[in-house]
Amino acid sequence: MKKFIEKLQFITHDIQQHSHIEQAQIACSAGAKWIQYRCLTKNDDELLIDINAIAEICDDWGATLIVTDHVHLNGKADIQGFHIEDFDADFVKLREQLGEAITIGGSATTLQGLIRLAKEGADYAGFGPFYTTTTKPNKAPLLGVEGYQNAMAELKKLDINLPVLAVGGITINDIDPLMNTGIFGIAVSAAINQAEDMRSAYLDFYDQIV
């Protein structure tokens, strides 16, 4: 089943300036069609308060709601999909567990990771880090533009048609060179939700990507 995958994916994060709900509201009011709720600090009751509120916002604005991990909450709120950050997750089993209607995305830091996600039936992949990021720090080498160019060329050779989104420390000035590598889109958190004017920042990204 082919899924809708948005080219600009906004990821909420634990920040002082705005709650997750506020971030979703501002992004959707700016035209966001994809909200990835990423919160790894709350218990299930707190998560569901956030998720249900964000689900209503997404429904009002016609946006897709993706939840980072927490697949055990499937069916307890109006969630359209899950983004799995575990590099070793079994996506075949996840598909069996969640069903065909749910969108499932995964994270990768290498070409081999992208190939595995494609073979196991992930609907899209977040590929990074492009640059240094404090939102989701890890020890993987920074890809830079060249890393995306090489990976996309190899996927094309293998005839793998997986929507790949660049992620990790991306700024507005990085969009054009990244999109020219052949990636499908970009996932952004800090460059939008920590901007002085979050709504304007989202619109700036959207205008260059879509």
From TrEMBL:
One of the GO BP terms on file: thiamine biosynthetic process
Pfam families attached to this UniProt entry: TMP-TENI
Tagged with keyword Cell inner membrane: no
Enzyme class, first EC level, given as a word: transferase
Transmembrane region(s): none
Binding, 4-amino-2-methyl-5-(diphosphooxymethyl)pyrimidine: S107, K136
Record keywords, A-Z: Magnesium, Metal-binding, Thiamine biosynthesis, Transferase
Keyword Metal-binding assigned: yes
Gene Ontology cellular component list: cytoplasm
Residues annotated to bind Mg(2+): D69, D88
SUPFAM superfamilies for this protein: Thiamin phosphate synthase (SSF51391)
CDD domains listed in its UniProt record: TMP_TenI (cd00564)
Co-factor requirement: Mg(2+)
Catalytic function, reaction form: 4-methyl-5-(2-phosphooxyethyl)-thiazole + 4-amino-2-methyl-5-(diphosphooxymethyl)pyrimidine + H(+) = thiamine phosphate + diphosphate; 2-(2-carboxy-4-methylthiazol-5-yl)ethyl phosphate + 4-amino-2-methyl-5-(diphosphooxymethyl)pyrimidine + 2 H(+) = thiamine phosphate + CO2 + diphosphate; 2-[(2R,5Z)-2-carboxy-4-methylthiazol-5(2H)-ylidene]ethyl phosphate + 4-amino-2-methyl-5-(diphosphooxymethyl)pyrimidine + 2 H(+) = thiamine phosphate + CO2 + diphosphate
Task performed by this protein: Condenses 4-methyl-5-(beta-hydroxyethyl)thiazole monophosphate (THZ-P) and 2-methyl-4-amino-5-hydroxymethyl pyrimidine pyrophosphate (HMP-PP) to form thiamine monophosphate (TMP).
Full protein name: Thiamine-phosphate synthase
Organism: Pedobacter hiemivivus
